[in-house]
Structure formats: structure tokens, C-alpha cells
């Protein structure tokens, strides 16, 4: 019978893993050593540690090495947890950081229950998430390429015709193709900027087609479609929310999900005084970004027509009711706060925070229906 537990902290890097062990009780954690970061060495380590009659609980920080180690240890039957680096308690005045100290500290805090585990996506979800994040990177490249081109035209006093009020539309692109420079060097620079932008936009189109295909064949397709009943939440936004969150059931309430987005205000209260500051910006930054982008849609009056009406066709009545309630409530909140003269940033953050609650309600409802239908099948 296994009658004790060993808490093992791993400081994982690309080539090596520092290992520390904290036994049950109050004994100081001990440094075990460093091993190469490969499957054979890891298997030998835990075979040796598992020879003793004790349970092994392993933890390491989330980082660029991904979840391969977690999946490998889980396959070996070893309990493993990946912890959030930003939520690891730190000591004031501690200015020494080494792999050895980090591993010992992880083992000590894991034994004390002071570490916060993160959600581990499935391999399929992680692949779709990488696809969505690849699109985010491409959008950043597109913005950078547009800035380069626009500033080049501005420097050389090339202005679009007065009827082209919006940039980067199809008509604007047609006008760009007609622009010519007398100087050959300037013409080369302009054509290269234009060609780079065209390549990035073609890349973006390929990624968006791939996201649509993979999303519709994934197990999350019903949730993705249900989220699109909300104003300002189209396919890319819905897919981003789903792949970053995984399952919305891991949040017990809408309030918990709001906290995860980092859109709740920070607070300092002492005695009779209470002060609320800027939003915490904890949790998932990708989720927070798409929520803020979607929140701008609620400055318009509630309306169901056009694209929103198409996206709501065939959806559950409960989901449609929540989506309409979101429109009316969030527009009212935006108008009320704007009328008080609140800064636009604060107004949008407040709307995005409440939008997160409606997203949680729709997603959990869709997940519940999907699980129920799977049980019946």
C-alpha cells in the first residue's frame, strides 16, 4: 500500500529539467538533480522515484515547451499539473533565480497547495488554437504592412481621391494599383510594399478558410454556431473564444468567467475606504481582446436583421432569447455610461465584462444540449 506522497517540482527548459522533491510533512524540499529533457531520461527518473511505496505528484510551469511533458507523464499514470507562472507566490526581496531554486520552490509551494493549475487543452483543441493564433499574427503583419504603405504615400504627398473616404476597401485597392511614380527607385519601393500587403492578405484568406473547415468538423461546432447569435461575435471571434477557453463548464458561474477575462476592476479596500482601479488584466489576453472588439458593436441600437438574422436561424429559442437580452441590456449600459461622460475605454471595458457573462450563458447552454444529445445517441 502507498501510504505517503512525494511532491515533485520540475523546472523545465528546452534541453534540461531540474528536479526537486518535497516529502509529506514539514521537511525542507531537497534538490534531486538535473536530467536531459527527453522521454528516456524522464522515464528512468520516475521509474526510480516510483520504486518507493509512495504517490508521485508532479508540477511544472506553463511555458514555451508546451504540454508534451504533461501528456507523457499522464500516459505513464503519474499525476501531473501545469501551473500558471503569473500566479506563483513570490517573496519580496528575492533577487536570485536559478533552475535549482525554482524547482525547490515549486515542490514546496505544490506541497502547500499554493499553486494554481491551468486548463490543459486536448491535442485537437491545441491544434485549432495554434491555427487561430497564426491568424492573429498574420493580422498584426497586415496592420504593419498597411502602416508602411500609408506612411510612404503620405511622405510623398500621394492622396486618395476625395470619394474614397474609407481605406483598405476593394475600391481603395483598385486605386492603389493605378498609382505610379516617375522615380524608378520610388516605384520599386511602392510596388514591393503593395506586393507584400497582397501576399499577407492572401495568407490571411487561406488561414480563415482553414479555420472555418477545422472548426465545423470539431466537437465544438454547436457551441461556435450558438455564440454567433450574439451581436459582434462572428465565426473567428466564436472560434477564438472556444479554443482559448476549452470548455465553459469549468467556470461555476458567469462571474467566474468574467474574472478569468481580466476585465473586472482591481480593488483596494481597507477599513471604511474602498477604491476600485484599472481592470486586472489577468487570465487570457486573447479572450479579453476579442471581447473588447465585440463590445464596440453594442453602441448601436438593438436590431436583428441581415447577418445576425442569418446566424440565428435554426438556433435554440433559449439561445436566441439570451442574445436579444444581451443586445438590449448592453446597448442600454453603453448609452447610460456614455451619457454620464465616462471615458470610452471604461465604457467598452464594462460592456465587454457583461458580454462575457452572456457568452458564458450561451456556451454552457449549448454544451449542455450537446452532451445530452450525445448521451441519447
UniProtKB/TrEMBL annotation:
<feature type="domain" description="Transposase IS116/IS110/IS902 C-terminal">
    <location>
        <begin position="225"/>
        <end position="301"/>
    </location>
</feature>
<dbReference type="InterPro" id="IPR002525">
    <property type="entry name" value="Transp_IS110-like_N"/>
</dbReference>
<dbReference type="Pfam" id="PF02371">
    <property type="entry name" value="Transposase_20"/>
</dbReference>
<feature type="domain" description="Transposase IS110-like N-terminal">
    <location>
        <begin position="8"/>
        <end position="154"/>
    </location>
</feature>
<dbReference type="GO" id="GO:0004803">
    <property type="term" value="F:transposase activity"/>
</dbReference>
<dbReference type="GO" id="GO:0003677">
    <property type="term" value="F:DNA binding"/>
</dbReference>
<dbReference type="InterPro" id="IPR047650">
    <property type="entry name" value="Transpos_IS110"/>
</dbReference>
<dbReference type="InterPro" id="IPR003346">
    <property type="entry name" value="Transposase_20"/>
</dbReference>
<protein>
    <submittedName>
        <fullName>IS110 family transposase</fullName>
    </submittedName>
</protein>
<keyword id="KW-0175">Coiled coil</keyword>
<feature type="coiled-coil region">
    <location>
        <begin position="190"/>
        <end position="217"/>
    </location>
</feature>
<dbReference type="Pfam" id="PF01548">
    <property type="entry name" value="DEDD_Tnp_IS110"/>
</dbReference>
<dbReference type="GO" id="GO:0006313">
    <property type="term" value="P:DNA transposition"/>
</dbReference>
Amino acid at each position: 500500500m502507498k501510504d505517503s506522497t512525494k511532491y515533485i517540482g520540475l523546472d523545465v527548459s528546452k534541453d534540461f529539467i531540474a528536479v526537486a522533491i518535497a516529502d509529506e510533512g514539514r521537511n525542507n524540499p531537497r534538490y534531486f538533480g538535473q536530467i536531459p529533457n527527453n522521454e528516456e531520461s524522464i522515464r528512468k527518473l520516475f521509474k526510480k522515484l516510483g520504486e518507493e511505496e509512495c504517490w508521485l505528484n508532479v508540477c511544472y510551469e506553463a511555458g514555451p515547451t508546451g504540454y508534451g511533458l504533461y501528456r507523457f507523464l499522464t500516459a505513464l499514470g503519474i499525476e501531473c499539473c501545469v501551473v500558471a507562472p503569473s500566479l506563483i507566490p513570490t517573496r519580496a526581496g528575492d533577487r536570485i533565480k536559478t533552475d535549482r531554486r525554482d524547482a525547490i520552490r515549486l515542490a514546496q509551494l505544490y506541497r502547500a497547495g499554493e499553486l494554481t493549475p491551468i486548463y490543459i487543452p486536448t491535442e485537437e483543441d491545441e491544434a485549432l488554437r495554434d491555427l487561430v493564433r497564426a491568424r492573429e499574427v498574420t493580422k498584426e503583419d497586415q496592420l504593419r504592412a498597411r502602416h508602411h504603405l500609408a506612411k510612404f504615400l503620405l511622405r510623398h504627398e500621394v492622396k486618395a481621391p476625395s470619394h474614397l473616404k474609407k481605406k483598405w476597401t476593394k475600391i481603395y485597392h483598385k486605386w492603389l494599383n493605378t498609382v505610379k511614380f516617375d522615380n524608378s527607385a520610388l516605384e520599386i519601393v511602392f510596388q514591393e510594399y503593395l506586393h507584400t500587403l497582397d501576399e499577407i492578405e492572401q495568407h490571411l484568406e487561406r488561414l480563415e478558410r482553414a479555420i472555418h473547415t477545422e472548426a465545423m468538423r470539431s466537437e465544438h461546432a454547436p457551441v461556435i454556431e450558438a455564440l454567433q447569435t450574439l451581436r459582434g461575435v462572428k465565426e473567428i471571434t466564436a472560434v477564438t473564444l472556444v479554443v482559448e477557453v476549452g470548455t465553459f463548464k469549468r467556470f461555476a458561474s458567469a462571474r467566474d468567467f468574467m474574472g478569468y477575462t481580466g476585465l473586472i476592476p482591481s480593488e483596494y479596500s481597507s477599513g471604511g475606504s474602498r477604491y476600485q482601479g484599472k481592470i486586472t488584466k489577468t487570465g487570457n489576453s486573447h479572450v479579453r481582446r476579442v471581447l473588447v472588439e465585440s463590445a464596440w458593436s453594442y453602441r448601436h441600437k438593438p436590431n436583428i436583421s441581415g447577418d445576425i438574422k442569418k446566424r440565428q436561424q435554426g438556433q435554440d429559442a433559449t439561445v436566441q432569447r439570451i442574445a436579444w437580452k444581451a443586445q438590449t441590456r448592453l446597448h442600454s449600459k453603453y448609452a447610460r455610461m456614455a451619457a454620464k461622460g465616462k471615458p470610452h475605454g471604461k465604457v467598452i471595458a464594462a460592456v465587454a465584462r457583461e458580454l462575457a457573462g452572456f457568452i458564458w450563458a450561451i456556451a454552457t447552454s449549448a454544451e449542455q444540449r450537446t452532451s445530452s444529445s450525445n448521451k441519447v445517441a
